């Protein structure tokens, strides 16, 4: 970014309120993301207010009187369209996707239905109920991944290969969300691609010694590796990137988002989910991907702001 353009972005940004924390299961990760971003914005010389979102959010926003909200709330309320709707009513511009795109990305079931409808590869899945035919599902699929429909940070996710475990993990996942689904297990490896408007960040390969890329692998385990750039034949990398691009566009996401994908035993790539507010912690995928392309954390924040001004607040002149 040229010095002149950089100055334009910074002068346009005005006062920024960083929303973080909240009440979802992902509160701790959101606080880490919010603190990292707030520190970066301050290093850029911007006026920043941090808001740990609670009951008096409207009052806190009115007191801060921001020109832009940088939303780092992960999980329910922050990532599912609820906060976005509130900010629309208040007339406050905000980073990331709008109400419908946020809600769709958060709901893995409806998101996958949409992807299937437009012909994008995603693993088969079933919504689970208290009386689901547990043995029948295992007979049909063999190995399954149990997931809360609305949730992130891999909370409440488990891999099962027998009826007893499937029912037990369903009941466990219900602690995280009322809706739980079982998805066809894919053998891996797992990839993640950050999307910022019309640009794709470098593809990341996720490697963990754990059974899968779970909460511990993401935020605790020091042996987890994020490999970037990835060692894939160019044709396969093209397919992977195209799938991520189409996934983002089909949901009409905007600003920064992250698309997670997995390779099956058949060699095909399958969409797992789209994250409309990806983590921005020291352990997070998007900052690591950007760094591999020579984009430092603060520069990434500048590019996010630039993307927002182009999308929602009019082009810079």
Element layout with pairings:
Layout: H1 3-13, E1 15-20, H2 27-43, E2 47-52, H3 57-64, E3 68-71, H4 82-90, H5 99-106, H6 108-117, E4 125-128, H7 134-141, E5 144-148, E6 158-160, H8 163-173, E7 180-184, E8 190-196, E9 199-200, E10 204-207, H9 215-219, E11 225-227, H10 234-250, E12 256-263, E13 269-275, H11 285-292, H12 297-311
Parallel strand pairs: 1-2, 1-3
Antiparallel strand pairs: 4-7, 5-6, 5-7, 8-9, 8-10, 8-12, 10-11, 12-13
How would you explain this protein's 3D organization?
The protein is α+β, with helices and mostly antiparallel strands. The chain has 12 helices and 13 strands. The strands form 3 sheets. Strands 8, 9, 10, 11, 12 and 13 form a 6-stranded antiparallel sheet that branches. The chain has a 4-stranded antiparallel sheet with strand order 4-7-5-6, covered by helices on one side. Helix 1 crosses helix 12, helix 2 packs across helix 12 and helix 7 crosses helix 8. The longest helix is centred in the first third of the chain and has 17 residues. It is globular, with a radius of gyration of 19 Å. The protein starts with a helix and ends in a 6-residue tail after the last helix. The model has no long low-confidence stretch (mean pLDDT 92).
